[in-house]
């Protein structure tokens, strides 16, 4: 039995990649991640758009999440159309052509006592 779960439109209202980190690379570099789950039988075409308080949005960043797979997308690895600036507040939307589930995670390693937060994104 294959249960399809998720939504096609997601939003993460809070985003921030610290401009510096404390710890070995790449594991402990401060970053944000969208953990995306695709339980469908087809690949998901996903577009991420980044919104700022003081400039025009950037994106879309185009990704494929394979059928019946998960992918952890580090926002600091997104480069095309341009890297997401560090040390700046932003929000994001994640739009898919098939239902997916999105979880948001941040690793903040600016202190030697690292902090990791995670929350489910908002689905519409």
Classified by CATH, the class is Mainly Beta
How much helix is in the residues? under 10%
Task: Enumerate the spans where pLDDT stays under 50 for 5 or more consecutive residues.
Answer: none
- Biggest sheet overview: 8 strands, antiparallel
Summarize the structure.
By secondary structure, the protein is mainly beta. 0% of the residues lie in helices and 55% in strands.
Q: Explain this structure to me?
A:
This protein is mostly beta strands and 124 residues long. It has a single domain, classed as Hypothetical Protein Tm1070, Chain: A (Sandwich), CATH 2.60.290. It has no helices and eight strands. Strands 1, 2, 3, 4, 5, 6, 7 and 8 form an eight-stranded antiparallel beta sheet that branches. Strand 3 and strand 4 form a beta hairpin. The model has no long low-confidence stretch (mean pLDDT 84).
Secondary structure topology:
Layout: E1 7-16, E2 31-38, E3 44-51, E4 58-65, E5 69-74, E6 89-108, E7 115-120, E8 122-123
What brief labels describe this structure?
globular, mainly beta, Hypothetical Protein Tm1070, Chain: A, 8 strands
